[in-house]
Amino acid sequence: MTRRKIMRLFARWHVWLGWLVGVPVLMWTVTGLIMVWHPIEYVRGNHLRAELPPVQTQAWVMPQLESPVRSLSLQSLPDGPGWIVVQEDGNRVRYSATDGSPYAAVEEGNARSIAATAYAGDAALEAVTFFPADANPLDLRAGVDAWQARFADDTHIYIHAQTGEVLAVRSGWWRVFDFMWGLHIMDLQEREDTSHPVLIIFAALGVAGSLLGCVLMFRRRKARVQVPKGARA
């Protein structure tokens, strides 16, 4: 096969690949642009988190634990300092920092108080809803029992139902970012799988199309100039 025929074949492949991967490439570009429109700190809602006071150094009472644990930490929480214990099975338990007693599960009234303390915005608290671990909202996906505090500015604050920890602060822009991320990785259902066959195939086809474009762009074309006989010296 001659070089010219090979180039024609490459050009044909390039056109077909362009039609095939053009939409995904445009989608990756648009979603990427939207995702970087704001700093990641803004997306995570750091500006909506109230700054908690530091834990004072004093004689706190440690909890009496009967079994090994993964970690034990003293944390500043919206409703006061507390010991957060991560058990061997990954379960999180809270103990009082003043007397070491177990922390009672968070009720709706506690959740409202915690949300009001943790929120740095000006919108009113509209509702507080409990979600079990197997029915987390799409903007949480933590797999734990949690309370959702919904504010009038479309901010959602999620509170661990056992420890009172703030699990996440989700703004309207975060949900836009999350949807764009799902489109970007072609996984709108779970929005977590970044290595699945559909994504890999389209990415590989995109690379192949780009390489063919580079080959076609830099190929040498010899210009043929016809000079009239009368113009010759």
List keywords for this structure.
elongated; 7 strands; alpha+beta; 4-stranded antiparallel beta sheet; 3-stranded antiparallel beta sheet; 35% helix; 2 domains; 5 helices; 233 residues
Characterise the protein shown here.
The chain crosses the membrane at residues 12-37, 198-218. Keywords: Membrane, Transmembrane, Transmembrane helix. It holds the Pfam family PepSY_TM. This is PepSY domain-containing protein. It comes from Aurantiacibacter zhengii. Helix 1 (3-35) packs across helix 5. The protein has 233 residues and is an alpha+beta fold. The longest helix has 33 residues, at 3-35. The strands form two sheets. Strands 4-5-6-7 form a four-stranded antiparallel sheet. It has a three-stranded antiparallel sheet with strand order 1-2-3, with no helix packed on it. The protein has five helices and seven strands; from the N terminus they run H-H-E-E-E-H-E-E-E-E-H-H. It has two domains: 3-39 and 184-217, no CATH class; 46-170, no CATH class. It has helices at residues 3-35, 40-43, 108-118, 172-184, 197-217, and strands at residues 69-75, 82-87, 92-96, 125-131, 146-151, 156-160, 166-170.
